[in-house]
Specification:
This protein is mostly helical. It is built from eight helices and three strands. Helix 3 packs across helix 7 and helix 5 packs across helix 6. The longest helix has 28 residues.
Length: 184
């Protein structure tokens, strides 16, 4: 019988234990994945793998937009960005206009256009910033909060279905991985 695979596994376990005190199989598995995937990065396939990762992230973004489109077609909120602006404004008293645009990683003209649409629908109101006279702040109105309460359960349902295949541990890990990519 050939034990070469078992010998390789034992060497990997020994390498792991040299630098790690945890005896959890989950921690070893994470280390092993990182160890094996770092070897892939040096191969010619790395560029292809990175392209696939980017494609999958774009695909997921488009899929969420497609799934939420039917909800927005029956609402005066017309996009996931408008929804997100309202959601942020519902959690915090107010934001400077450019502050909320930057939170959403949008170009200034795009963010300002979203704010204009929300103002036209009376979902938000603007007022002078007390600390900076050049800046304007925005806050959600009662009408905006009511519209948010109407569509939020439907959007939450889509987001829940979207992440349903993941268990809690996978959701936490995935969120941590996405945070690493976002903070670059």
């Amino acid at each position: 019988m050939d034990y070469s695979l078992l010998k390789r596994i034992i060497k990997l376990v020994e390498a792991y234990q040299e630098d790690h005190s945890s005896m959890k199989i989950e921690d070893f598995t994470i280390w092993l994945n990182n160890h094996l995937f770092s070897a892939i990065e040096s191969s010619a396939d790395a560029a292809h793998e990175e392209l696939l990762l980017a494609f999958k992230l774009m695909f997921l973004n488009k899929e969420l937009k497609k799934q939420t489109k039917s909800i927005f077609s029956k609402s005066s909120v017309s996009s996931i960005d408008e929804y997100s602006f309202l959601l942020h404004l519902d959690y915090q008293e107010s934001f400077r206009k450019m502050e909320i645009v930057e939170i959403h990683n949008l170009e200034a003209p795009t963010g300002i256009e979203i704010i204009r649409r929300l103002l036209r629908n009376n979902f938000i109101e603007e007022f002078p910033d007390k600390e900076d006279r050049r800046a304007k702040r925005i806050k959600i109105t009662k009408k905006g909060a009511a519209e948010l309460r109407t569509i939020k359960p439907k959007i939450d349902e889509i987001f829940s279905r979207f992440s349903e295949p993941l268990n809690l541990n996978e959701k936490i890990q995935f969120s941590g991985i996405l945070n690493k990519l976002i903070k670059r």
